Description:
Structural class: alpha+beta
CATH class: Alpha Beta
CATH architecture: Alpha-Beta Complex
Order of helices and strands: EEEEHEEEHH
Number of domains: 1
Number of strands: 7
Largest sheet: 7 strands, mixed
Amino acid sequence: xxxxxxxxxRRGVVAIIVQEGRMLVIRRSMHVIAPLCYCFPGGGIExxxxxxxxxxxxxxxEIGIQICPTRRLWECVTAWKVHLAWWLAEMDPxxxxxxxxxEVESIHWLTPREMAGLxxxxxxNRELLELIEKGKIFLTHS
Length: 142
């Protein structure tokens, strides 16, 4: 398991993919930071990448699908001092996400309520769900 880096100022991206009222959620593998926690898929922004390029690459690496980011939803700084940009994204409904075992143990399609009920949910994900519930963030593509 990787240790949480102490370096402040790291940047990352997260993809929110919704189909038929359910959100694509991953359970992280044993080999990454925060092992076996549930969260939306995403990861670090590499040098020279834009947020959009990074989120497309991260989703392809983690679950093997092509996405189209449509709108930036939110940003936050996590307890680990990572500045995250949260992107609403679309995927082909016929695409089948497949977990990359180095990063992802399993893939789930959950309602916001089901996701909020997970005890192993990362705090920043819980915060986003609360903002959705309060009507401060909308999961529409327009």
